[in-house]
Amino acid sequence: MSFFRDHSLLLLLSLAGVFAFLWFLPFRKRLRMGTVKLLIVTTILMFWGFAAARWVFPFIEAFGNVQEMANLRMYGIFFFDWIGILIVTKIIKTDRPLFFDICAVSMVVCALLGRMDCFVKGCCYGVPFFGHSFRWPIREIELIANLLLLAYFIPKILKGKTHGQVYPVCLIYYGMVRFILECFRVEGTPIGSNGFHLAHIWSAISVLMGIFGLLILSEKQKREKQKKRAMVK
């Protein structure tokens, strides 16, 4: 039991990696990828996601001072997964928008399982509910929010009704949910005495990144439509 507690994040993110491989399987033909190639790609992305959550973002968050980390490592997955996805899709030359959409679901699953690690570690409690012993169930609320997001997008991606917008939407959604829930969280690195935490800043950055991503995607789609119209003429 102590082994699981000490290595719970690694084990849970490994489980997310297994999910990612199984989730990719129905898209093999659309991505033009064989099973072995798919296994290699998902394994690489799993390790990159773990590194981003475990080391890259915590280091940035604490400006190199690991003693001051605020344990906001799940932002690392949302903020840095796109780098690994861009590199991988460039190398294997596959459908990039679809790949991003598929990876976005895996990213949300990582966040969901990462939040479950809080139950194991006994952290991220909510503040008392209006002075009572009962606390705001912020961990449970975030889990439900992530499940709702998955329930909405998974059928759409399977039916081919998304075109690369899932990742930026997830950034916006996750940032908004975390921004609200951080107001009811016990732990956190405070910014002044106004009740705001460092996580509020990262949440706002997540929303802005998502909006920026949607704008880039919109401009790209406009250019593609213009090219098609020019070819028709």
Structure commentary:
With 233 residues, the protein is mainly alpha-helical. The chain contains nine helices and no strands. The chain is globular.
Brief summary:
With 233 residues, the protein is an all-alpha fold. The protein has helices at 2-6, 8-24, 28-31, 35-61, 74-92, 96-121, 138-158, 166-181, 198-232. Helix 5 (74-92) packs antiparallel against helix 6 (96-121) and helix 8 packs antiparallel against helix 9 (198-232).
Decide which structural class fits the backbone: mainly alpha
What is the percentage of strand-forming residues? under 5%
Q: What string, H for helix and E for strand, traces the elements in order?
A: HHHHHHHHH
Helix content: over 70%
Distance between the termini: 68 Å
Low-confidence stretches: none
Query: What profile does the largest beta sheet have?
Result: none
Count of helical stretches? 9
* Extended strand count: 0
Radius of gyration: 19 Å
The shape is globular
Mean of all residue-level pLDDT scores: 88
Q: Into how many domains do the coordinates divide?
A: 1
